[in-house]
Amino acid sequence: DGGITQSPKYLFRKEGQNVTLSCEQNLNHDAMYWYRQDPGQGLRLIYYSQIVNDFQKGDIAEGYSVSREKKESFPLTVTSAQKNPTAFYLCASSTPPTEEQYFGPGTRLTVT
Amino acid sequence: GENVEQHPSTLSVQEGDSAVIKCTYSDSASNYFPWYKQELGKRPQLIIDIRSNVGEKKDQRIAVTLNKTAKHFSLHITETQPEDSAVYFCAARFYKLIFGSGTRLLVRP
Fold first, then answer.
1. What is the pLDDT of residue A2?
2. Which of B97, B101, B103, B104 to mutate to test the interface with A (most CBs of A within 10 A)?
3. pLDDT band at B83, cuts 50/70/90?
4. Which residue pairs from B25-32 have beta carbons closer than 8 angstroms and sit at least 24 positions apart in sequence?
């Protein structure tokens, strides 16, 4: 199913709690990405990583953190500092020379 | 900053008609323009892409055109079918992908 997985599919948290979303890929892709999708909006880039142990902020990084200790894994932590964390989160990966980004199935996070 | 504008936000067509979705990008250095289809509750999937050295690309009922001078690119779907109903996103890339806000396409049987 595309070789990129996200877990869990649905996640519920109380306000003020940090939560970590998992993203794993077995495509041997170098680059990985996290996007946030809100209803009626496009995908907004949170963080991306082009190689292991390196990552860059995207357009909406505030309140989020990531790590890239392994090529296969790029977990995203939604911290309590994120003002409006309820959203659909998509992870993606890609590798040169193709520029196609392969998306995971997404995690729908609800914070109440 | 970099921006991609996508129009229309919703599009309803009769089965068999054509559908056209248009995007405009701001960064003239953008060199890669993919289109993604996202069905309800599912992941976006690439349906076609074009690079800046090509003006048009076609894949069966789907085609994309690029006008670098005007910084416009468009998705054309011919002979639409109900299964084409989905949200379509355009994107433009220089060093990272910037997505449009999406077009919800409804194909009426």
1. 52
2. B97
3. very high
4. B25/B71, B25/B73, B25/B92, B25/B98, B26/B1, B26/B2, B26/B71, B27/B2, B27/B92, B27/B94, B27/B98, B28/B68, B28/B71, B29/B94, B30/B2, B30/B71, B30/B92, B30/B93, B30/B94, B31/B93, B31/B94, B32/A99, B32/B92, B32/B93
